[in-house]
From TrEMBL, chain A:
Pfam families: Acyl-CoA_dh_1, Acyl-CoA_dh_M, Acyl-CoA_dh_N. One of its GO terms (molecular function) is acyl-CoA dehydrogenase activity. Residues 10-121 form the Acyl-CoA dehydrogenase/oxidase N-terminal domain. This is Acyl-CoA dehydrogenase. It comes from the Bacteria. InterPro entries: Acyl-CoA_DH_CS, Acyl-CoA_Oxase/DH_mid-dom, Acyl-CoA_Oxase/DH_mid-dom_sf, AcylCo_DH-like_C, AcylCo_DH/oxidase_C, AcylCoA_DH/ox_N, AcylCoA_DH/ox_N_sf, AcylCoA_DH/oxidase_NM_dom_sf.
From TrEMBL, chain B:
This is Electron transfer flavoprotein subunit beta. The electron transfer flavoprotein serves as a specific electron acceptor for other dehydrogenases. It transfers the electrons to the main respiratory chain via ETF-ubiquinone oxidoreductase (ETF dehydrogenase). GO terms for cellular component: cytosol. The keyword Transport applies. Heterodimer of an alpha and a beta subunit. Belongs to the ETF beta-subunit/FixA family. Its cofactor is AMP; FAD. Residues 23-212 form the Electron transfer flavoprotein alpha/beta-subunit N-terminal domain. Pfam families: ETF. The keyword Electron transport applies. GO terms for molecular function: electron transfer activity. CDD domains: ETF_beta.
Amino acid sequence: MARVERFLPSEEAADLLELVGDLADNELAPQVAGFEERAEFPREVLRTLGRAGLLGLPYPVEYGGGGQPYEVYLQVLEELARRWLAVAEAVSVHTLSAFPTYAFGTDEQKKRHLPDMLGGELLGAYCLSEPQGGSDAASLTTKATRDGDTYTITGTKAWITHARVADFYNVFCRTGGPGPKGISCVLVDAGTPGLEPQVAERTMGLRSSPVAQVVLDGVRVPAERLVGPEGGGFTIAMSALDSGRLGIAACAVGLAQAALDHASEYAKGRTQFGKPIIEHQGLGFLLADMATQVSAARALTLAAARLRDAGRPFGIEAAKAKLFATDTAMRVTTDAVQVLGGYGYVSEYPVERFMREAKVLQIVEGTNQIQRMVIARSLSRE
Amino acid sequence: MKIVVLVKQVPDSGAERSLRADDNTVDRATANNVINEMDEYAIEEALRLKEAHGGEVVILTMGPDKATDSIRKALSMGPDAAVHVVDDALHGSCAIATSKVLAAALAQQNADLIIAGAESTDGRVQVLPHMLAERLGIAALTGARKLTVDGSTLTVERQTDEGYEVVTASTPAVVSVWDTINDPRYPSFKGIMAAKKKPVQTLSLADLGVAASEVGLDGATSAVLEHGKRPPRTGGNTVEDSGDGGVKLVEFLATEKFV
């Protein structure tokens, strides 16, 4: 596998990336094809990553995190996605699921929940979308009614990554009137009576990652599980999405890099008309364009991450990175299939899977149309 | 219980390896140097014993300055401290001389148990654990696929071609392990950070009271006189099946003593 030249901010980051490379080569790469084929969730693999300390990297050490800047965390995600997109996405979703508590929780909530969330043994989920609406999150209808010290939650959440396997769920629900100001975020443990994950969707790709509806039927949760103020849920959701978009962008860069790795390796070994096909300009230039786009996507993603690390506004740059990196992944994985020709279209080679997997990245964490809307609005405000 | 684990830095056996043109020793300068694979199983076994019985795990390495990388990596898995024997005069030492140096270092440790990999992927002579036990006057339980400790009694399932033998001894003793004994852990990120702060004691030959003339190329009891490149792979035999293919295959297997 080609070495990606990385500019890392510290020696510990270089050590971390080396550890991640070992884990990814030895634990992820040999297993991905089988788990994707069987549509089986690799819980043990995530435990291994958890024990290595990879399930809480961008959070402070005092809460059990890795104390790493986003710039480093995203490059870890990228290397994981390069071997197994579903595992990288799982790490990204889990990392995001600790964000509401970390960024908006009380000190007591942080001390009580974060060490478990970041400890590596638990997995979290994030429930915002509903069957009738994902992009228009402010119109969600799952209802929570307060009665004394208890919220009772009823509604249906959709497209929930880690449904059925998560240990805790961030549930966004309506505690007040219509619109964004009536939404709150409540932390619900798996196993709470009435919380019922449904049968997993049969998806086009990313099959080892379970995605399902979660039905909440009169789920009773102590009021102390409210994260942030009542009515503050939409702000939390949007804030978490900014960081989540960076995670998906990094996953897309890793997937595109994997497609480039496989396509260029194949093009060096495949001979037609007496020479390796990479030496035919038509394919050589195609691969050159793929490589350039992957580097550009990585640079854009890390530039946004560095703004976040510096405490500067980064939401618009995160939207651009998500848009560009995932569109790049779609294009590069499609081109990789083209480079392999007929072999690219059969499942003995992973590139057809890469192409199927890329598609979902243009949809999740805000469709790419939503990203363009966010970017366009920022231009009209300037 | 104090456990010392012998760790050797070797050229990555998965990559191209070579001998030096000038003195026929292993070329460590151009190689990708890693922890000897079998030693990771020795470290894992020591850590499991520590977790079960308490105590301390110390890494002992003899090797050049850059073996420090492998020592830090070994420490990131969880051992408490390391001892690094480093001296320019050690270059080219044979197994007998190496055992003299390591035995001198071990004599300072008062370990209850010494665990080593059954072989290194560069030398592959498999004799060092026996030599150390002989020099220290303690038992050698070698080629373990299972190790249990009950008080001061060690019980080892010793792997053989036919099966295994059960051998026992009292501590202190030397145990060498195969890769069937456990599944080594990965370091954790926190382990990597902690390893940077763990104590690594550096010892020279003078610190161990071993004379330079007893070790290195000059003190070696064996010498590599010359070396050459491995011959390129030959084409192999093609068996054409004209009704007697099966017979020909069996004849071939018989000449190679497979049947």
